[in-house]
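Work Package 3 (structural annotation) set out to generate three-dimensional models for the target panel prioritized at the project kickoff. During this period the team completed the workflow that converts sequence records into C-alpha cells, so that structures can be stored uniformly alongside our sequence database. As a representative example, we reproduce one entry of 109 residues exactly as it appears in the project archive.
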Amino acid sequence: MYCRWFDVGCLVLKDPRHGVELTTFSQATPVPPECACAAQDATPSDYPLRWSGLAMTVGQAIQQRAPHVDHADWHSYVVGMSRAEILSSAARALAGLYRARLVPYDSIL
C-alpha cells in the first residue's frame, strides 16, 4: 500500500470584538510514505480514536526508522525547517490578514 500524507497546520484567529474570524494554513510538509504506512499499520482496526487519528504519531514513525531524529521536530529532518519556523511563517501571514482586516488598504492609500 502506498500512503501519501502531508502535515498541514491550521491557524485560526477569532476577534469577536471586531467581528473578525480568519483562518490560514502552513505549508504542506510531505510525510515520508514509509512512515505514513508504518503509523497506519501500527494502529489496530479497533482503535477507538481511529476516526480522528492513529495510535502512533508521524514523529514516532520517523524516529523508529531514524533514531537520531527528535519525534517532536521531525520537520527539520524532512524539509530542513523546524515546525516552529513553519508555523511562524503561517502566523505572520495570519497577522498580515488581520491587520488588513482592521485597517483596510483603501483607508491607507
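The chain has a mean pLDDT of 91.
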